Amino acid sequence: MKFEKIIILAFGCLINYGVMPVTAQEMTDIILEAPVLKADSISLSKSQREISDSILAIYNAQIDELNRINKYRSEKKSNATAIFWSIIVPGGGHFYLGNKKTGTLYLVGVVGSALASGGDHPDPRDPPTSLESTFYLVYIIGYFANIIHSPISTSAYNRKLKEKYGLTWAILPLKNSLAITLGFYN
User: Fold this and answer.
1) Contact residues for 82 (Cβ-Cβ < 8 A; gap 6+)
2) Integer angstrom CA distances of residue 85 from 56, 112, 141
3) Between residues 35 and 116, the one the model is more confident about
């Protein structure tokens, strides 16, 4: 009878996890502090204890995976925001990602080449020199490279974040079969 309560409690917690307004740690504390789970108050057979331990292990693994997914989602960076900041300020998308060296390189390179291009001539009829034209070309290429490179860097940042939290996919073959499964690895 009490063993059935353990199973019902564990699966009930799994089902209600998304509905109940408590944290994963509070849910774990509720399960572990429940009187039906205390070993001294329940006389379970060895197989029943193994089943209840495995249910709790599965539940704790699922809670851990949900926590890692939530941490990843909270730290994930947006491609659109990186592009926006790269358009506004050269290197701004890289500063948004925390990549200060690359952001500084784009900022100094684009602004420096814009200044070196001599964009405002005192006499508009005076054509730019070949050196000024070269710096203007460097300015244009650098500015657009900055915008194109920011979502690439954002994808790399998010990929490293997934690896940090163990959320990358691996193809794992099943033993003695031709089928494959997809699963997370740490």
Assistant:
1) 93, 94, 96, 97, 150, 151, 153, 154
2) 46, 19, 17
3) 116
- Counting every residue written for the chain, the total comes to 186
Closest Cα to residue 56, out of 16, 27, 35? Answer: 27
Q: What are the extents of the domains in the chain?
A: 2-75, 79-164
Beta carbons within 10 angstroms of residue 95's beta carbon: 19
Tokens representing residue 181 in the block? 């499964």
> 167 pLDDT exceeds 70?
yes
Give percent of the chain with pLDDT exceeding 90: 31
Q: CA separation (Å) from 132 to 1, 123, 126? A: 87, 15, 12
CA distances from 61 to 24, 56, 65, 93, 155 (A): 11, 8, 6, 36, 27
Tens digit of each residue's pLDDT (9 = 90 or more) over 118-148: 766 666 677 777 788 888 888 899 999 999 9
Cβ atoms of 92 and 86 closer than 8 Å: yes
* Cβ count within 10 A of residue 126: 9
Q: Where are the alpha helices (DSSP H) in 34-99?
A: 46-75, 79-88, 92-97
